[in-house]
Design goal:
The complex is a heterodimer of chains A (213) and B (175). Chain A is an alpha+beta fold and 213 residues long. Helix content of chain A is 39%, strand content 18%. In chain B, the strands form two sheets. Chain B has a six-stranded antiparallel sheet. A two-stranded antiparallel sheet of chain B has the order 2-3. The longest helix of chain B has 13 residues. The chains are: A alpha+beta (213), B alpha+beta (175).
Chain lengths: 213, 175
């Protein structure tokens, strides 16, 4: 007699959204709870129109805490769609922790423009191009992300502007002598532009190898 | 009376919001310095005009030993319109060293005591470049890198407005 296999087909480890969703900020009001549910539905079962259901309000009409919350949700969604194949769970959790800390409404200076999704997209793409060490994050007062790498007196600082444009400054210490270099390029060309300098070679060895000589 | 020009041995205190502090790559709560973006002029936005000068506070305006001057500066900034957030910090830089880094890049800055209603120890750094990321990063790396945290245990909680008169008096030749 043939024994039938009655167990459900399996593709190995099932998708566990728990840790990922847990990285979202916790709702503090009914309105934010609804937004949280909407964002969660979008993350678990994204639809192209999920974020276009409400007409956008002018930024000045939206309280700062709400704008920060919305930005945070948008950045996490963007990470899920753009970098899911490149960031493992730990890296994604690390990035979300950085974003939570940076966009914390209690710490945010009200004079600063809330960071934009355009800048975040550039940041993500740049990090994926560079590989290697992941940066610490900061902001400009004009709504751009800053990515930084620091080792002793060597510091690389990159401002992520919209449409893949980046501004960078490298300060390095060579035998007690401080040297600096700066420039403006695109995220894709960064590995090539940084190729002559030692700290980036150490921090992003794969990118340095890939860049044309 | 023209504004007092700060002597090169004196110091400036600049409020640095949380997002403009340099963090550890592996611990976003661990601050390891200040970012150059902390020294940029605020650009125009909406009805707000672009800042004309860099706003700072004069450390030596306050009486006492260095720590007392720091306490006075921080509490005066807390009493101003800036409303520093709990995780923010204050960067301290020497006037002469800041001016030297600026001069290397052909900026002839002027560091002037220009009291304002909400901060009598306010200093305007004039002729400050609107946008020079490399200059700002060089300052953050060295000349303007000393940090004091808003939550520092050695600084009493709460604001205290700066006194109306400076504890420092200029030498006779500058009067």
């Amino acid at each position: 007699m043939t024994k039938l296999n009655t167990t459900a087909p399996s593709r190995g480890k099932s998708y566990e959204p728990g840790p990922f969703l847990g990285a979202l900020p916790l709702p503090s009001t009914d309105a934010s709870a609804e937004r949280w549910r909407t964002a969660t539905r979008t993350l678990v079962n994204p639809t192209p129109s999920a974020y276009a259901q409400h007409a956008p309000r002018p930024p000045c009409d939206v309280p700062l805490a709400e704008r920060l919350f919305d930005a945070l949700a948008a950045f996490k969604k963007k990470t899920a769609t753009l970098a899911v194949a490149h960031f493992n769970h730990d890296e994604r959790a690390r990035l979300f922790m950085q974003l939570d800390s940076l966009l914390d409404a209690e710490s945010w200076d009200s004079a600063d423009v809330v960071v934009t999704e355009a800048s975040f997209t550039t940041l993500l793409r740049m990090v994926l191009y560079l590989e290697g060490r992941r940066p610490a994050l900061g902001i400009t007062g004009t709504g751009n992300f800053i990515a930084t790498w620091t080792e002793g007196d060597d510091r690389l600082t990159i401002e992520c502007k919209s449409e893949d444009h980046v501004r960078w400054v490298l300060v390095q210490n060579l035998d007690g002598q401080r040297e600096s270099a700066a420039g403006e390029t695109t995220a894709r060309r960064l590995p090539e532009v940084l190729r002559p300098y030692d700290p980036p070679k150490r921090w992003f060895p794969h990118a340095a190898d890939q860049a044309p000589a | 009376m023209p504004p007092t020009k700060l002597p090169p041995e004196h110091h400036l205190v600049r409020y640095v919001p949380w997002g403009k502090l340099r963090k550890d790559e592996n611990d976003p709560e661990r601050v390891i310095g200040v970012l150059g973006t902390a020294f940029t002029l605020r650009p125009a936005e909406g009805i707000r005009a672009q800042e004309e000068y860099l706003s700072t506070t004069w450390l030596e305006y306050f009486a006492g030993e260095r720590q007392e001057k720091i306490v006075g500066s921080v509490r005066a900034i807390r009493a101003s319109k800036l409303e520093p957030r709990p995780k923010s910090a204050f960067a301290i830089g020497n006037v002469g060293r800041i001016a030297a880094v600026a001069a290397d890049r052909n900026y002839k800055i002027r560091v002037l005591h220009e009291p304002v209603d909400d901060n009598k120890a306010h200093v305007a750094v004039r002729r400050w470049p609107a946008d020079d990321m490399a200059f700002f990063e060089l300052l953050a790396a060295d000349a303007w890198s000393e940090l004091v945290f808003n939550k520092d245990d050695k600084i009493p909680a709460g604001p205290r407005a700066a006194p109306d008169r400076s504890a420092w008096t200029p030498p006779p030749e500058q009067e």
